[in-house]
Amino acid sequence: MTVVTRFAPSPTGHLHIGGARTAAFCWLFARHFGGKFLLRIEDTDLERSRQEYTDSILASMIWLGLECEGEPLYQTKRFDVYNEYIDRLLASGNAYWCECSPEKVEAMREKARAEGGKPRYDGCCRQKGLGAGPGRVVRLAAPATGRVVFEDMVKGHVAFDVAELDDMVLRRSDGAPTYNLAVVVDDITMNVTHVMRGDDHVNNTPKQILLYEALDAAQPKFAHVPMILGPDRQKLSKRHGAKAVIEYEEDGLLPEALVNYLVRLGWSHGDQEIFTMEELVQFFDGTSLNSSAAAFDPEKLLWINAQHLRALSAEALLPRVKPFLERIEAPCADDALALRVIPLFQPRTSTLVELAEAMKGLLLPAAEVAYDAAAVAKSLTPEGREHVRVLKERFAGLASFDKDAVHHALHSYVEDNGLKFKAVAPALRVALLGSGGGPDLAEAMAAIGQEVSVARLEKALSL
Ligand code: GLU
Q1: Largest CA distance in the chain
Q2: What is the per-residue pLDDT for 237?
């Protein structure tokens, strides 16, 4: 059997982290078993569905690396298929036309409620043998008694009493299929073997199982994954710092880190926290899924991102940080320079945004270094300038300009003159970088090179 999973977002908003995690589970499960991962756009809610959201969801999936097999399937283009299945159910006696008006159905429900029963349609049109007609709907002839049971991959044994369920509508009076009918027909025709989705859908599952039974179709396995909650265990929202996937992209997160974090949020593999995509594919077999809801922790997400960022080579990071450099008007004109600068900041930044910000100061030509007035006033005192002037000469005279040579030149200047490093470094730092803070001075100078280092010091001295 080929494993087939699907992700079925409704395009009523951008892809959020809950959906992204479901998509990641489906994708990983299919990959792990050498199967297929399909995408279905559940766009039948015409009021709320938007093409721009479909486009945004597709772009987020690609960014996350969760590419699907073939073209996505759009429910709005499949009404003929749904009707064909409804006709089959009518022909086999598993469905019937119902002429009850919505008001009449509501009155039945009201009556059942008043009698202390479950509000449900009473099946009064079942035996009428009606055909199609204006205002009529098609309903499933559901069994009156019994239980629907299934073994959920996350929740274990789940059972529902059929008496809880209605003769649900399959086709509305306007001819549109209902949600559960469309989902089941799609899952059957897409040959889906494993339905993994949020557990907000668990109440739909018994209804869907009745449809599989009525259609005499093989049922998929179900995995209902608990919701992601806020740290206060309430429904996750923006106020908890949760964002849409595209916002994380803009914040400079690495997609593989976001996937790692989200997958780890509902699944474990021993106590391992950091996974490459390859490792996730290797280990994710649909077991060890948590049955209780996990809380979203933006700090941990950043930490995971930092670990992934550190694990990348400078060569791999360069194309990823470039768009962020462009965004802050520091386009990288010299790849070799950027490759020397990246490792200086990799251990101390958590996102591509932070990395680009940190790199910016070292990528600029001397003429474009911006000096922070307060730092200049504080550190480039007459005494500070004198240190910079002498050091500039020493640096200009070095035959080798690697980190050790620069370090040695700097420290021998300090020692030769009986100075303290603390008395010299701030002036040199401001002269070189324009402000306080930043990387190790010798490393920074070695990265930008002798010529640029000396030119920067010269510029500072001319201020
Ligand atoms: N369209 C549904 C949602 O966005 C998913 C339904 C399913 O996976 O069966 O929640």
Answers
A1: 107
A2: 84
pLDDT at 166: 87
Q: How many CA atoms lie within 13 A of 395 on its CB side?
A: 30
The tens digit of pLDDT for each residue in 2-30 reads 999 999 999 999 999 999 999 999 999 99
What confidence score (pLDDT) does residue 220 get? 98
Whether 223 lines ligand 1, by a CB cut-off of 6 Å, is no
Per CATH, domain 1-69+226-311 is 3.40.50.620? yes
pTM assigned to the model? 0.93
> Which residues make Cβ contacts (< 8 Å) with residue 39, sequence separation at least 6?
6, 7, 8, 58, 61, 68, 72, 73
Report the pLDDT value the prediction gives residue 164, as an integer from 0 to 100: 86
pLDDT tens per residue across span 226-267: 999 998 889 888 888 889 999 999 999 999 999 999 999 999
DSSP letter for each residue of 339-394: HHHHHHHGGG-SSHHHHHHHHHHHHS-GGGPPPPHHHHHHH--HHHHHHHHHHHHH
Minimal-distance CA residue to ligand 1 atom 6:
8
Q: Does CATH place domain 368-461 in 1.10.10.350?
A: yes
Is the Cβ–Cβ distance between 150 and 158 less than 8 Å?
yes
Is the CB of residue 154 below 6 angstroms from any atom belonging to ligand 1? no
Domain covering 78-225 assigned CATH 3.40.50.620 in the classification: yes
- The domain defined by 313-363 folds into Helicase, Ruva Protein; domain 3 (1.10.8)
Known active-site residue 300: no
Domain ranges of the chain: 1-69+226-311, 78-225, 313-363, 368-461
